Every structure is written in C-alpha cells, then in structure tokens.
Amino acid sequence: MFTSAFRFLRIILTVMRFRLDALVPFSISPWYIRYSLGLFCSIGRKRARKNKGERLRLALESLGPIFIKFGQILSTRRDLLDDDIADELAKLQDKVPAFSGQVAQAIIERDLKAPVEELFAEFSADPLASASIAQVHTATLHSGEEVVVKVIRPNIEKTIRKDIGLLHILANLITRMSDDGRRLKPVEVVNDYEHTILDELDLAKEAANTGLLQRNFVDSELLYVPQVYWDYCHGNVMVMERISGIPVADIASLNKANVDMKCLAERGVEIFFTQVFSHSFFHADMHPGNIFVDVTNPQKPKYIAIDCAIMGSLDDADKSYLARNLLAFFKRDYRLVAELHVESGWVPKGTPIHAFESAIRSVCEPMFAKPLKDISFGQVLIGLFQTARRFNMEVQPQLVLLEKTLLNIEGLGRQLYPDLDLWVTAKPFLERWMREQMGPKRIMEEARKQAPEWAGQLPQIPNLIFSALSQISHQQEHMKSQTQAIEQLGEELKKNRQGLPFKLLGLVSIGAAWITTDTASLEVLKSADFISLGLFIVGLYLFVLKS
Predict the structure, then answer these.
(1) Is 340 in the same domain as 393?
(2) Membrane-spanning regions, if any (predicted)?
C-alpha cells in the first residue's frame, strides 16, 4: 500500500512538473474544479502552453512502460488529437530513450551463455529502435543472415508491478464507490491486463507467438512474419530475421512508391478478421511501430508484422456471438442485436427488448450513412456507454484486448485511406465465415480432426460391441428373473387371497375350541372335550391345508 501511495504521488508530481494540467480545458469543467484545482494549476499555464505534445511525451516516458503504451494507443487516433500531440506521441512507438548498449550486450551474454563475438559475426551496440519494454539491435550471424536482436529493458518488471499494484487499488475503489464501476468490471480488466503485460516480458513466449502467427500466414499474400532463430532465444533475448519495408505510418513514402492505399487499408481489415475468426489468434499490439509494408508489388501491397508479445484469442462461443452481432449490425437488425445481448447474459434477462433495440438503433444507425473519415468513434463509444448504463450492460473482460485492437485498426484505417467503408469491407468476410461454420466444409474439417482418435479406437470396437451386447443380455436376464419373481409373488398373493376365508374360518374354529374348553363345567367336560377337539381339527385343517 505504501509503495502504491508513493507511486501515485510521483505521478501527481510528474503531471505538475511537465504542466500537463495545461491540457485540461478547465473552462468547461464543473465550477468546483475550476475554483479549486483550476486556480492552483493556473500558475504558469501561459508559459506552459508551448510544446504541449512534447511535454506529454516526456511525462509518459518518465512514468514508464504502462504509460508509454497508453501513449502508443493515443498516437493511432489522430482524429482525436491535435497534430503536434499526435506527432510527439508517435515517437513512443519506437523512439523511446534507449538504455546502454553495453548493458544490452551483458544481458545477451548472460542469457545465451556465450560472448557476443562468438554468437554473432557482427553486432551493433547502438540500438536500431527502442520501445517501452525492449530495444532492438542489428547483428549478423556467422552463417551470413542479417538479424535483429531484441533485449528486455533491465529492471523493467519492478516498475510494471508498481503500476499494476496502483491500478488494482484504483480498480477496487471504483468498484466499491460506483455502480457504473462494478458494471465495467475494472478488477477483471486489470487482472487480464496484468497477465498480458507480464507475458510481454518473456521473449521466449513472444518467439513462440511469432512462430504460430508465421505458420498461420505461411505463403499468404496478405501478411509476412519474420523468421525466428530459436537457438538464440531466451527469456530476455530474441533473435529474428531482419526485414525491410516502409513503416505503415510513413504515408509520404507509401504514396511515393505508388502504393494502392485503398487495397492496403482493405487488406488490413481482412488480416484482422482472419486472425480473429479463422485463426482465433490475433496480434493485439498493432500500433504503427509494429507494422511495415512490403511494396514490391505496390498494387497489391503486403503487410509485415513484428513484435508478437501481446496476442489475443477468443473461444468458439465468443467468436460466434461476436460474428452474429456484427452481422446483425451490418444488416441493421437491431432487434437481433438486443436479443443476442440478452441471450448471452450481457444484460439482465428481464431487459425490455423493444426499448433496448431502440437505444441501440439511435447510437449505431448514423454510422452507416458516413464514410470512415466522418465517423466519430469517440461519440459512438459515449453513446454506447450511456446505453450500457441505462440497461445495466456489463463489460466483458475477455473482449477488452479485442476492443483495444479495434481502436488501433480504426486509427490505422483513417491514416491509410480515410474514405474506407469498414462495414462494406468486413461484411462479406463475416458472411463467408458464418457459412463455413454451418456448412459441409465445417463438418468435413471436424471429421478430419476427429479421424485420428476414431482410428485409434477402431481395434477396440469389436470388444466394445461384445461388451455392450453382453451387458444388454445380462440386463435382459436380470429383467427376466425380476419378471418371474414378480409373477411368482403375484401368484402367491392370488393364492393367499383365495384361501383367506378358510384361514379366517379356521382361526374362528380354533378360537371356539379354546373357549369351549375353557368355559365348560365339570358335568359337561367330557362332551366339551370332544366338541373342542373337533373344532380344533377342523380349524387346523382350514388354516394350514387350505393355505
């Protein structure tokens, strides 16, 4: 708790040091903000108005990787930022201040357990690029291949854990103090983010992610993923093929190379949906610093993806639900969207469908009448948040990473081809995917997946059939014996019912013999004995022999 409090104090001091308060429009803030915090922060604001983008970038750099990543996400949304701020934040993608090349060399030698001279024919101590978590050096293998060496920043995990601890405290406070906070599930979101960013510190996992993404797009005309050199990969070091291409954010160079920007933008959308729905494995850190363009064929440009540290995946239920929702949106079937939300449990079961449908329509309908450049995604998010608040719709933590990636994709689309119609581009893909999920091709794929298991069970089938038939026969014999027992019991009951009057008469005769003997006087004792004996014999015969 003390560490988190100290970290929070440092954040406040950093905000004041770089005069980030100058970015806050206090003139439109509530009166209690203007006359408290506003008055305090107004000191020196005029002097602080210059280079606000640079001040924001420096502040985020000084606060560490989590804040730098936030700046990277913002840098893709030039529609929401002033140009000077967007230009400065773009430097956070690969121009974060580097650490010493000698330190990087020491980390490489420690992890790979060999001197750099033995590992590489050439190694550049000056970094090629530097980002929030790691930096990259160029090198050449003794076999002649040109490679890049990625090295994790020293002591970075300690800083990240401090920030995650602070986020946990804030998430719990929001959950306790606000109904909206509980609905947004901040604790679950922070937990997911913690796993994601800590995985990013393990370059062995990034190498494995890169290998899987490469296999998914092998021989693809859409995306190229560099080769990983597995013998040179460890937790803090990863070596991979050095690629050449134009950074996707370098619009001037792409135009100079006569790249078909419309095709490039559409291919970006197709790559995203292919990863999410066809592969269930998508690159979730698609800011411009991680994407390059191969312009060998400018009319059919090809993407190059690097930095596969943060990857996302969806299970079959999430994919199906998401696809059905998107298709319903594209078809403007807002009633189906409302029904799917209720069916999935995102909103309570008792939610009035008509009212929910109307609210969704009011938010989403304006999106279809405009090209991408004219759609304010921020306004759409605000409208959806208001809808969510009204109908108690809950945030789904498993989709937060996907939503972050969608923000990056939309921002990239705006830069490449502002007139791109995202809906027209995505709809055919989703329709094709849904047909594949329900058609014969899907059945054949599932049969092919299950074939090895079925083949392994074939030798056991005769034994399984014999065992099943034996069990059925045993059950039939058991049922037969039970039936016979029931029939025998029925016969016994029937017989007993038929002999019941004789038994009663026999009991009466025995009782009468006993009474006659007990009550007879001495004078008639001898005759009574004969009568009692006769009654007893008759009674015994009726009770026993007629049973």
Answers:
(1) yes
(2) 528-545
Same-domain check for residues 367 and 423: yes
Q: Is residue 382 part of a domain?
A: yes
pLDDT tens sequence across 451-500: 666 566 667 667 667 676 677 766 766 666 667 766 676 666 555 555 55
The one-letter code for the residue type at 302 is K
Do 447 and 509 sit in the same domain of this protein?
Answer: no
> Is residue 202 assigned to a domain?
no
Dump pLDDT digits (tens) for 430-446.
Answer: 888 888 776 666 566 65
Which one is predicted more confidently, 539 or 359? Answer: 359
Binding residue numbers for ATP: 128-136, 150
- How many CB atoms are closer than 10 A to CB 388? 19
| Residue 384 near residue 175 (C-beta atoms within 8 A) | no
| Tens digits of residue pLDDT in 413-427 | 778 888 877 777 777
Catalytic residues: 285
The string of DSSP codes covering 316-348 is HHHHHHHHHHHHHHHTT-HHHHHHHHHHHTSS-
Helix (H) or strand (E) holding 148: strand 146-152
Give CA–CA dist 183/1, Å, rounded. 25
Distances (CA, A) of 478 to 463, 488, 491: 22, 15, 20
Structure tokens at 416: 């490449």
Claim to verify: residue 317 and residue 419 sit in the same structural domain: yes
Residue 412: burial class (beta carbons within 10 Å; 0-12, 13-18, 19+): buried
Give the range of the structural domain holding residue 42, as residue numbers without chain letter.
2-93
Q: pTM higher than 0.85, yes or no?
A: no
Give the neighbor-by-neighbor strand order of the sheet with 223-224: 223-224, 302-305, 291-294, 246-247
CA–CA dist 291, 301 (Å, integer): 13
Which of the given ranges, 22-31, 56-65, 254-263, 536-545, has the highest pLDDT on average?
A: 254-263
Residue 335 sits in the same domain as residue 258: yes
- Kindly tell me if the per-residue pLDDT of 15 is higher than 60: yes
In total, how many domains does the chain have? Answer: 3
> Is the residue at 346 inside a domain?
yes
Where residue 393 falls (left for φ over 0; alpha for ψ -120 to 50; beta otherwise) is beta
Q: Which of 37, 61, 93 is the last residue of a domain?
A: 93
Does residue 508 share a domain with residue 451? Answer: no
* DSSP conformational letter for 114: S
